[in-house]
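User: Hey, my collaborator sent me this sequence without any context and asked if I could get a structure. I don't really work with proteins. Can you help?
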Amino acid sequence: IDPGQLRYVSFINVGYFNNKPYVQLRSGEWMRASPVAYTDFQGLVFSRTPRNSFGWIVDTAEVRAAPTYSAVLLEKVLLREDVVQIYSVQNADKTDWYMIGPGQWVERRYIRQVRINTTPPEGVTNGRWIEVNLYDQTVSVYENNQLIFATLVATGVEPFFTQPGLFQIYSKKATETMSGAFEPDRSDYYYLQDVPWTMYYDQARALHGAYWRAWFGYEQSHGCVNFSLGDSNWLFQWAREGDWVYVWDPSGQTPTDPSYYGAGGA
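Assistant: No problem. I've predicted the 3D structure and written it out in structure-token form, which is a compact way to encode the shape of the chain:
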């Protein structure tokens, strides 16, 4: 495996030497192992479209009595991955504020909103699509024009933006090895074995599980849409080749000129 910043391999066995853990690779070689952080986060499945917008807390959040930094802080504190209802959105102090209850407001940086929209994107005629929201870092899945699933994801970080547009899944692979580099000296080389539940939809850009991510709701990838393992499995089982993938940025900040984008990566 070439040197690089991000290298993950699969192992088939675990052993100990001098009370230190080692793992055996599929090639038969052994290497020293260290614990890594992981998440058991999973999104939400719905039997019918929710009545209200909602979202996830992505960092410990204070709650204020009004949509402004000068408002009184309430005793209520929200924790990462808490789910909240969103009843209203107001802009003040150069940011959006979300009303999560009567007299309870949280600023935008702590919340990732699911913007429910059961109207199909232009070009989708079968009532079945996957919506990737780059601004809110969420994915919403629609079937028969109803929201059936939503979750947090991690999309491309600048300059490796996830390209906006309407695409179709063209290949599904239960596992995939991904590798690549973007810098001329390959100092950013990455190698990822057994990337789970991979579905390609835009050149090398794919929807897939990311076992190397400890949290979601932030731009982190080389252009792919990264999911928790549980979420990627759910989506892989639901989706089929030819399904629509609609990628958009409601803030308008992500470049939309196709000439900006290369093939993408993990």
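In plain terms: The chain has a mean pLDDT of 92. You can pass these tokens on to your collaborator as they are.
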